[in-house]
UniProtKB/TrEMBL annotation:
This is Transmembrane protein. Keywords: Membrane, Transmembrane, Transmembrane helix. It comes from the Eukaryota. It comes from Favolaschia claudopus. The chain crosses the membrane at residues 37-57. The keyword Transmembrane applies.
């Protein structure tokens, strides 16, 4: 019991603050509540605790963002943020040097470094003691990519997919359905599921070796939408690229937890045959 209490105290010493932290983490992971809404819940909860029970939350700092909560819980993202060329949208490796130029169009991938003391207009807006600290340190901020792309490989998403109980049986259940000749009630009733070949020319879903392997039919989607300008995409059209395992019945495969977002394509300046068709 003492070890469990120590582990929980590591998240936050006050039990009522931990309850709010558990709440916002659950709301985001289960119901997709936004980061901003979670931050609002945290700040309001801290304010209410202070109003109703006096100095209940001080001097211990209360987490103010969902990012801080995830850091305390050691919850990590399922994607990697890759630097991306702002001109031609070439995606680079996450660990490239900050002086890297795009290999396709030779554009500078990272923005210029910013030195604290060289920005007097911004420094003057700070409080006096903050201005003194900034002037003394004159730190050079790390160069950041001008555009980034969050990327999750399908192989990584499938690891999480098969951690869920019953998924192996679920992806094979369509083979045991009763099919009426001439009636198409779901995607698996189409001829392609019976005729598609593997690398050896055998039926992909019904050929030799299907009992020893898990064989998936995966669809790829590119959904266009408009969004405000951010580091992930400029203003204009953007495309969310995702994969979905089509072996599952409709009630399962349409669940948001089984749709794997792999990248976001900024198409504001993308003029290609594919872009025009889509």
């Amino acid at each position: 019991m003492s070890q469990a209490l120590t582990a929980r105290d590591h998240f936050h010493p006050r039990w009522y603050i931990r309850c709010v932290m558990y709440l916002v983490a659950f709301l985001h992971t289960k119901h997709r509540v936004t980061f901003r809404a979670a931050a609002l819940i945290l700040v309001c909860a801290a304010f209410l605790f202070t109003c109703f029970v006096g100095n209940m939350v001080d001097p211990i700092k209360v987490p103010e963002t969902l990012k801080t909560v995830f850091s305390r819980f050691e919850i990590k993202d399922n994607f990697v943020v890759n630097p991306t060329c702002f001109r031609c949208h070439y995606v680079l490796e996450p660990d490239v040097a900050s002086d890297t130029f795009c290999p396709e169009c030779n554009a500078e991938v990272f923005g210029a470094a910013w030195q604290t003391a060289d920005n007097p207009a911004r420094v003057q807006k700070r409080k006096p003691h903050v201005r003194r600290c900034l002037a003394d340190s004159a730190r050079v901020q790390k160069r950041k990519p001008q555009l980034v792309s969050p990327v999750q490989l399908l192989s990584e998403g499938l690891k999480d997919f098969f951690r869920r109980p019953g998924m192996v049986a679920a992806v094979n259940s369509w083979k045991h359905r009763t099919v009426v000749e001439g009636e198409l009630k779901c995607m698996q009733d189409a001829a392609v599921w019976k005729t598609i070949k593997d690398a050896n020319g055998h039926s992909f879903f019904f050929g030799p070796g299907v009992d020893e392997e898990i064989r998936l039919g995966v669809s790829f989607s590119l959904d266009w939408y408009a969004r405000s300008k951010s580091s992930f995409a400029s203003s204009g059209s953007s495309g969310a690229m995702s994969f979905c395992v089509q072996n599952l019945e409709t009630s399962l495969k349409c669940d948001v937890v089984r749709v794997y977002l792999v990248d976001i394509l900024d198409a504001h300046h993308l003029v290609t045959d594919i872009g025009l068709i889509i």
